[in-house]
Structures are given as C-alpha cells and as structure tokens.
Specification:
two-stranded antiparallel ribbon, 228 residues, zinc-finger, zinc, Znf_CCHC, 2% strand, 11 helices, mainly alpha, nucleic acid binding, Znf_CCHC_sf
C-alpha cells in the first residue's frame, strides 16, 4: 500500500484514500486506467482493427510508421493481448510500400530471418532507408522538388510576362511619338517650310541682298520701257 501511495499523484490518491488494503486499491486503479472488462474488450477490438489495417504510406518515412505500429502493439500488450514476434515481423514486412521491395526480399531470403527479433528487422529497414535517402525518389522528396520547380517556372513565367508587357508598352510609346511628330508638321508655319523670307520683296528662299525681284521691277516698269 505504501508503494502505491508513493507512485501516484493527488488526483489518483483521491480514488483510493479510503481503501484499507493494496489489493482493493489496485483493482480501483486498474478499473480507472483500463476500464471494466467490457471497456477493455472494446479497446482491444479497436486496436486489433488498427493493427490489421495500418499500412506504411508511400510518402511516409519508416521511422514514423514503426512508431505508430509499436504504439498499437504496446497498448494491446497493456490490455492483455500479446502479439508474438513472428506476427509483428509479418505485419511489418507486408505493410511496406514498393520502394522497400528489394530489401524485403533480401531479408526474407536471409537464413537467419526466422531468428530475427522485430527490433532487428526495424533496425535494418531504418538503415536501408537512411542509405537510400540521398538518391531516393520517394514521393515526398519528388513532391518537394516538383513544388520548387513549379515555383521557379512560375517565376520565369511571371518574368516573361513582365518583359512582354514592357515591350508592348515601349512599342506603344514609339507609336505615340511618331503620331505626335506627324501632327506637329502641318501646324508649322509656311516660312519654316519655304525657307528664309526676303523682307524687301516678300519672297521666300533668299535674303534682301541677293534679291533680284526688285531689280527686275525697276528695270521694266510702266509701258515696257526701261526706267533708270
């Protein structure tokens, strides 16, 4: 009784504080933690179903799978359902994904396979997976690579799209510049199109010093005779 009292906390002590002997205290604690026989049977049925249906997923690491499997085994043991080493080994071997097929065949062909403990099988599979990790083509790694690749491709597509938009805008800018230059030309005055204007005769294309129009007018004037 003293050993039980030293091994529990205050909440558990409240369950057996009026109990007089260790046997009765043990039964109370057993029922509290494991339930009645009906509850235990229900739990065992659930654990058996989990044990039979659990499979290692293709994207899953073996360490994660074996932790879940051994948790089911240990809970079953606590409730009185003991799994033999042979049954545990068979469950592990038939629950692995195709990427472990070569290792499974090698283990089953090993002459010492029947003598191996589940812990040894687990250790060899963990070692096999760790050796294959650098060159592994597991879906989880492929998924990560595919995600990174898709992100890079998306960035490239975005860059190409941005470049195309910049080119389109630049071409539009050039067209607008050409259109503006065409609009400016008709608005220019006649003097800029015809050249320099002579301020004596009003003509274009020459200056007053080189003007011959006035000389001609002075030479022929009136009825067609020369005027000096």
């Amino acid at each position: 009784m003293h050993a039980l009292l030293c091994a529990m906390d205050e909440s558990q002590y409240k369950l057996i504080q009026i109990t007089k002997n260790a046997h009765d205290a043990w039964k109370i604690l057993e029922t509290a933690h494991e339930g009645t026989e009906v509850v235990k049977d229900s739990k065992l049925q659930v654990l058996q179903t989990l044990f039979e249906t659990i499979r290692m997923e293709e994207h899953e690491y073996f360490n994660d799978f074996q932790v879940k499997l051994m948790d089911i085994v240990n809970q079953s043991h606590q409730l009185g359902d003991l799994y033999s080493d042979r049954r545990i080994k068979q469950k592990i071997m038939r629950s692995l994904p195709p990427r472990f097929e070569s290792k499974v065949m090698a283990l089953e062909e090993n002459v010492d396979f029947k003598k191996m403990k589940p812990s040894e099988i687990i250790g060899r599979l963990l070692a096999y997976e760790s050796r294959k990790a650098p060159t592994s083509s597991s879906p989880k790694k492929q998924k990560g690579i595919a995600l990174k690749t898709s992100q890079v491709e998306k960035q490239d597509d975005d860059s190409d799209e941005d470049m195309a938009q910049m080119v389109t805008r630049f071409k539009k800018f050039l067209r607008l510049q050409r259109n503006d230059s065409k609009k400016v030309e008709p608005s220019q005055d006649k003097s800029s199109r015809k050249g320099i204007q002579c301020f004596k005769c009003g003509g274009y294309g020459h200056i007053s010093k080189a003007c011959t129009n006035l000389k001609e007018k002075e030479k022929w004037k009136g009825d067609g005779h020369l005027v000096k």
